[in-house]
Amino acid sequence: MLNKFPLWKNLLVIVVVILSTIYAIPNLFGEDPAVQVSGKKGIDVVQSVVTDLEKKVNDSGIKIKKTELEKGQLLMRFFNETDQLKAKDIISDALGESYSVAINLASSTPKFLSAIGAGPLKLGLDLRGGVHFLEEIDMNTAMGKAREQLVQDCRSILKDNKIRRASVRDVNGTVTVAFASEEDRAKGESEFRSKIPGIVFNDYDQDEKFYSQISLTDARIQELKTSAVEQNITIIRNRVNELGVAEPLVQRQGADRIVIELPGIQDTARAKEILGTTATLEFRLVDKSADLSSAEAASQSANPNVEYLTTAEGRVVALDKHVILTGDHITDANSGFDEYGRPQVNIKLDSAGGSKMSNFTKDHVGAMMATVFIEQKATKNKRPDGSTIFETHKTVANMATIQSQLGSSFRITGISNPTEAHNLALVLRAGALIAPIQIVEERTIGPSLGQQNIDSGVRAMVVGMGLTLVFMAVYYSVFGIIADIALLCNLVFLVGIMSIIPGAVMTMPGIAGIVLTMGMAIDANVLIYERIREELERGVNVQNAIDIGYGRAFVTILDSNLTTLATALVLFAVGTGAVKGFALVLMIGILCSLFTAITVSRAIVNALYGGKKNLKKLPI
To answer: What backbone torsions phi and psi does residue 342 show, to the nearest 5 degrees?
Structure first.
């Protein structure tokens, strides 16, 4: 029968409307200012800690709205931002450095909706719900690493060229090489100059030894500092991607600072821990002959080629200072379990790292190799220039006998729990920071600014849609009301889809995309209705006019929307930040408007007027 949908198509429209409404409803619920607490290195927040924190917060006169403890993480909700900020300081002071404390905006979506994956739109920083970090790079440590590398390069060059030398050491920030003769010094400096860029020499003789002080040029130092910032930015971007944050902003600010904005992030405590972690690995040979049973005994040793470190169990072991391989060569790392169910991290190396590991282990089968986990932690002490002093913490993660020649893939074990293994794998996979960083500023966008942006955007959308709805109802009568219903369905579809897309964030450009989509959606109905009017004026009967109006206008609507969709695809592919957000909303909006204009509105028209043979006039 003409203008009658089959049952399946009507059911499809009903199901889509219901599902979209369910997933759009969470946006009607607000967000609570909250403080989120997560344990570091796999430590869980337990109920006794929660009870103690609740007592401290209540004793300070702050009213807690709700406390939630799930999967070892605490979420404490408050009634306003003022209480939230005060409570954060109280909780931070009470817990110390074993826990990560961060402010957050927690969704108030009912649990029955959350259980089916329904949640509100994540709002960008220009609205509300994101977090802003300002991180400072410790350039002194970066330069220290550069000098350590210079020492290792010098030793390798002298060894490869069989040049005699007494020592290669970093003395007060200057690499000093002691040669056995002046001829050896001249040969060594020639090799250094050809293989190490950006160095200058200062020679002197003392106690029948021939010394060469090697320093980096100012240009080389500036190049290394710039490289440290750029590499840290790249690594932080990788870590942000691991966190699943959409439309992040990571950019340089000044000489040694990085701005990070994470819109719509939910787990700010974990973000703070991951972004601020400066962790890497070193693989070194265990010196069994120098193995000691106590730190006191180790402190009395004067062996310059051995470093004494402790294991997780507190045992002191002696390691060769020569580093076999660093974490810079790690290309992939993932956590898992060994054959005994113990946590482990599986590591893959790049070709250069695989070659180094292969060559070393080939010659040292039967020896013990240690995996050293290195962290840089900020202290409360400051340098004269105001920068933070970082401390290096080295721990022997595991020791294992080299059973055979290793390649580009191997594993490390001896990790205490799966959470620690997972976080270590994430940090190593995303890359080890070139220099330690400290979060010097953490804040969410001010609620007044965000709310003002939200109110302005919503007001623009409401006014625009209101005028459109009134115009359509007046100009096209009942059919105009049908178009209005389809337009509202379009908005519900768009919001529902945006709410379930992982990582999608709504920003002000996204709101502009919604407003533009609403205008384009109503255009499709106007084309259809005008075509129906033309057919009626030509004397075509009502049923045929409806069928022709929807059928022939479809091609025009499809053509116009496809060109816009292609433009949006290009914007999404090449754009960044706000441009990409606008393009995403536009693409989803176009697809929704095609469905609502052609299918939803016609389903309503068919239900009201389809199949009525005696119908002589349409209210259009």
So the answer is: -95, 145
- pLDDT category at 377 given cuts 50, 70, 90 is low
Q: Are 109 and 68 in contact (CB under 8 A)?
A: no
Quote the CA–CA distance of 511 and 514 in Å, as a whole number.
5
Round to whole Å and give the CA distance between 55 and 53. Answer: 5
Look-up of token digits 């100059």: 193
Torsional sign, CA 147, 152, 156, 162:
positive
pLDDT at residue number 22? 93
Cβ atoms of residues 9 and 244 within 8 Å: no
Identify the DSSP state of 118: -
Per-residue DSSP letter, 615:
-
Task: Delineate the domains of the chain, giving CATH numbers in brackets.
Answer: 7-25+447-609 (1.20.1640.10), 31-107 (3.30.70.260), 140-220 (3.30.70), 279-418+426-432 (3.30.1360.200)
Q: Is 144 helix (H, G, I), strand (E, B) or coil?
A: helix
Are 3 and 381 a contacting pair, CB within 8 Å? no
The reported pLDDT for the residue numbered 310 is: 84
Any idea what DSSP says for residue 613? T
pLDDT mean over 224-242: 75
The first and second tokens of residue 235, run together, are 């690594």
Rounded Cα distance, 485 and 469, in Å:
9
Mean pLDDT of 226-233: 80
Q: What is the DSSP letter of 196?
A: S
SS3 assignment, position 25: helix
> Does residue 107 come out as left (phi exceeding 0), alpha (psi in the -120 to 50 range) or beta?
beta
Q: What is the pTM of this model?
A: 0.57
Q: Token pair for residue 86?
A: 């005060």
- Res 95 pLDDT > 80: yes
Q: Ramachandran region of residue 176, left (φ > 0), alpha (ψ -120 to 50) or beta? A: beta
pLDDT of 432 strictly over 60: no
Angle at 503 between CA 247 and CA 18, to 5 degrees: 135
Q: What is the C-alpha separation between 375 and 327, in angstroms, rounded?
A: 12
Instruction: Give the neighbor-by-neighbor strand order of the sheet with 388-401.
Output: 306-310, 316-326, 279-286, 368-382, 388-401
